[in-house]
Amino acid sequence: MTHITFVEACGTSTALDVPEGWSLMQAATAHGVDGILGECGGSCACATCHCYVDDLLMAALPPASGNERDMLENVAAERRPNSRLACQIKAGPALQGGTVTLPERQE
To answer: 27-52 burial string, b = 16+ CB within 10 Å, else e?
Structure first.
């Protein structure tokens, strides 16, 4: 399990233990975290799981794929240097203790 904290736009914080290999989108939607829609079911086709990752995650994650970068062009909220799609982030030991902040809107 990987301990990840999700911070909703309203400030509510939810700490989850995410099974290794699950996407952060899967974990958030399975636990009712408000702010991640995941309309495409995790196939990197909608950008409704846009999130901002903290420095720990930025350092641990591989660069976004070309498809993810393309989808990030379509986010509804401000795109930032630490913007990622939660469907493309898989839980694992390197992400332990990371924090994901959700934008004020996804659509």
So the answer is: bbbeeebebbbbebebebebbbbbbb
| Residue 20 belongs to a domain | yes
Is 48 contained in some domain?
yes
Number of domains into which the chain is organized: 1
- Which SS3 state, helix, strand or coil, does residue 92 take? coil
DSSP track, 22-89: -BHHHHHHHTT-TT---TTSSSSSS-TTEEEE-HHHHHHSPPPPHHHHHHHTT-SS---TTEEEGGG-
Range of the domain at 29: 2-101
> Per-residue pLDDT tens for 2-51?
999 999 999 999 999 999 999 999 999 999 999 999 999 999 999 999 99
Report yes or no on 15 lying in a domain. Answer: yes
Tell which residue, 19, 1, 30, 12, has the closest CA to residue 100: 12
Residue 107 belongs to a domain: no
